[in-house]
Amino acid sequence: MIENTTISQQDILIKMVLDAWHAKVSQLDKLLTALSDEQLLQEVAPGRNRGVYLLGHLITLADSILPLLGYEKLAPHLWEPFVHTPDKKNGDLPGVNELRHEWVKVKTAVAEKITAISPNEWFQKHTAVSEADFAKEPHRNKLNVVLSRLSHVDYHLGQLQFLKPR
Amino acid sequence: MIENTTISQQDILIKMVLDAWHAKVSQLDKLLTALSDEQLLQEVAPGRNRGVYLLGHLITLADSILPLLGYEKLAPHLWEPFVHTPDKKNGDLPGVNELRHEWVKVKTAVAEKITAISPNEWFQKHTAVSEADFAKEPHRNKLNVVLSRLSHVDYHLGQLQFLKPR
After folding, report:
1. Which residues have C-beta within 8 Å of that of residue A101, sequence separation ≥ 6?
2. A63-84, pLDDT tens digit by residue?
3. What is the CATH number of the domain that holds B109?
4. Which of A19, A116, B1, B54 places its Cα 20 to 30 Å from the Cα of A154?
C-alpha cells in the first residue's frame, strides 16, 4: 500500500512538471499566432532584445533539452546567433518565418521525446553531470532539465508579451 | 528496495521544486537590492506596469501561497491594489519602502512554512480544491501551488529586469 502510494506520487509529480511545460509551449504558441512578423522584429522595450531574438533564443533553449536527455539537437546552428551573441550584434539572422518553422520542429521533437521517457528514467542523471556528482546531487536529473527550462521560458514570455499593443 | 527508491525520488522532486522557489526569491532579492526606490517607480517599458506595481503584485502572489497551504495571509490588504486593480488606476499605494518590508515579511513566512511541510503533506490537496475534484485530479496538490507561483515570479522577473540600465 505504501509502495503504491509513493509510486503514484512520483507519477503525479512528473505529470505536474510536464503539464507545466506543455502549458508554457501553448502560451508561446498563442503569443506567436497573435504577433505579426513585423511586430516580432521590434524591440520588446527601448534598447532591449527584439522579439525575433527572443524567439530564436527560446527555440535554442528548448532544443538544448534534447542532448541533456540523450538525443541530438535539431537546430544547433541557432546557438551561436541566439545564445552566444547578443541581439543586434549577430549579423545575418534567419527570417522570422524560418524561425516559426524551427519552433514547430523543436517543440514537436521535445514533446515526442518527453512523452516517451519512463518515470524511472526521469530520475536518472542528465548527460551533462558526472556519475560522481550525480551520486552527491541526485536532483540533477532529467526532470530537472525540463523544470529549469520552464523557468527560462516564463522569464522571456513576460518580455515578449510587450510586443502586443495594450 | 523499490519502496526506498520511490520514497527517495519523491524527496528529490520536492527538493527540486523548493530549491527552484528559493532560487527565484534570491533572484528577486538581488534585483531589489540593485534597484533604487526611484527606479522602482518607473514603468518597466513605455505604458506598462511600474516596478512598484509588479513588486506589490509579486508580494501578493507569494502571500497567496499561504492560504492554499492552510495558513493565513500576511498582507491581504495588498490584493485589491496590486491584483484586482490595474496599475495607475489604484489610487494611494503603499510606499516603495513599505513594500520592501512587506516582501521580506512574506518571503520569510513562506520559507518557514514550506520548510516545515512533510513530504506526504505536499501531496495532499491544496485548500481551494474540493475532495471530489482532488480525487480526479491529484496533481492539484500543495506542491503544485509552489510550482505555479514559481512560473508567475519568472514571468514578471523578466519584466522587472528592464528597470536596470543596460
Report:
1. none
2. 999 999 999 999 999 999 999 9
3. 1.20.120.450
4. A116
**Within a domain: residue B3?**
no
Residue ranges of E strands in chain A: none
Q: Cβ contacts (< 8 Å) between A162 and chain B: which residues?
A: 45, 48, 159
With CA atoms as reference, report the closest residue to A98 among A79, A80, A78: A78
pTM score, whole prediction: 0.91
ipTM: 0.89
Number of domains in chain B: 1
Q: Is B1 part of a structural domain of the chain?
A: no
pLDDT in tens, B123-155: 999 999 999 999 988 889 999 999 999 999 999
Where in the sequence is the domain holding B136, given as residue range(s)? 14-163
Q: Do A151 and B147 count as a contact with CB atoms less than 8 A apart? A: no
Collect all residues with Cβ–Cβ distance below 8 Å to A79 and sequence separation of at least 6.
A60, A64
Does some domain include residue A146? yes
